[in-house]
């Protein structure tokens, strides 16, 4: 009986520890995804601006001809 109670306590501690570790992993994964999404958005805007600049230069070149 006493051994059973001991094992139950140990299992509960393990379960709690695992839950905390998993929560930390989920938090880290979410932060990583948010950062990647921000970088992706920033990359898109920079790329769009670069393409827009190229288009304007192309138009200027044609207008000059």
* pLDDT < 50 runs, ≥5 residues: none
General form: rod-shaped
Distance between the ends: 95 Å
Q: What is the element string, with H for helices and E for strands?
A: H
Radius of gyration using CA atoms only: 28 Å
- Tally of alpha and pi helices: 1
Main sheet properties: none
Percent helix: over 70%
Structural class: mainly alpha
Rounded mean pLDDT is 81
Give the number of domains. Answer: 1
The count of DSSP E runs of length 2 or more, i.e. the number of strands, is 0
Strand content range? under 5%
Structural features, described:
With 65 residues, the protein is an all-alpha fold. It has one domain (1-65). Helices cover 97% and strands 0% of the residues. It is built from 1 helix and no strands. The chain has one helix at residues 2-64. The N and C termini lie far apart (95 Å).
Essential attributes:
65 residues, 1 helix, 97% helix, 0% strand, mainly alpha, rod-shaped
Write the layout of secondary structure elements.
Layout: H1 2-64
Biased composition (Basic and acidic residues): 9-25, 48-58
Region (Disordered): 1-65
Summarize the structure.
The protein is mostly helical. It contains 1 helix and no strands. Residues 1-65 are annotated as: Disordered.
């Amino acid at each position: 009986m006493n051994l059973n109670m001991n094992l139950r306590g140990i299992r509960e501690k393990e379960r709690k520890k695992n839950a905390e570790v998993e929560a930390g992993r989920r938090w880290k994964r979410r932060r990583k995804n948010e950062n990647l999404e921000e970088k992706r958005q920033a990359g898109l805007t920079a790329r769009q601006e670069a393409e827009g600049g190229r288009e304007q230069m192309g138009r200027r070149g044609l207008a000059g001809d």
